[in-house]
Amino acid sequence: MGLTMLRLLLLPVFLWLILDAPHDPHHTRTERWAALGIFAVMAVTDKLDGYLARRLNQVSRIGTLLDPLADKLLVACSVILLSFDWIASPRLHIPLAVVGIVYGGYIIVAAGTLALLTAIGKVSIKPRPLGKTNTFLQLVLVMLTICALNVSPALSENLRRVLVALWWAVAAVAVLTCLDYVRQGFRQLAEERQKMKE
Q: Please, what sign has the CA dihedral across residues 122, 128, 130, 135?
């Protein structure tokens, strides 16, 4: 819970550093390296938070709600910001189609969660392998994009090739993750309705 709150508190600092960084793509920016460091800390505390909660048996209802919220806020804000060419440069910015797919998946899952709460009064949100892969790929995408903005033009061009592949891998996994959560939602709905009939 404490690590989740730390991530939420660090998010505005990360966003400020990204927005405050100079936009000349040919020079290394201290602000961007600092932003990358903070982003890495937030990504590590996400994994550490879940591990400690399970290990110490300190899983709370508020924690299970805040933890995924902190993850989604971190990734969604970062991906949206890095889609602007005045922040990430015209060659390295994340395409709007990828941003739309990532963000759209979050909206569909959030709407489905609210629909389940309305229909059956509860919802069980459990981490899924696709969901973990989705989050991991999105975190890597953000970190590599920030790195590509700070390195030499030659290395940046090599990173761009990796980023192009990653853009579409992220989009594909986001779609599959969304479909998986929708399927799980319908399963929960069917199970609860079956219980009501018994």
A: positive
Residue 26 has pLDDT above 60, yes or no: no
Two tokens, residue 40: 């890495």
Predicted pLDDT of residue 142? 93
DSSP state of 94: P
- Burial environment of residue 178 by CB neighbours within 10 A (0 to 12, 13 to 18, 19 or more): buried
Contact 130, 173 (CB under 8 A): yes
Q: Which CATH number covers residue 30? A: 1.20.120
Task: Provide the residue count of the chain.
Answer: 198
CA 21 to chain centre: 22
Query: How many structural domains does the chain have?
Result: 1
- Per-residue pLDDT at 129 exceeds 60: yes
Q: Which two tokens stand for residue 107?
A: 């909206």
- Residue where the block lists tokens 């959560």: 181
- Structural contact between residues 33 and 54, judged by C-beta atoms closer than 8 angstroms: no
This prediction's pTM: 0.83
* Dist. CA 191–CA 126, nearest whole Å: 16
The range of the structural domain enclosing residue 95 comes to: 2-197
Residue found by looking up tokens 């993850």 in the block: 71
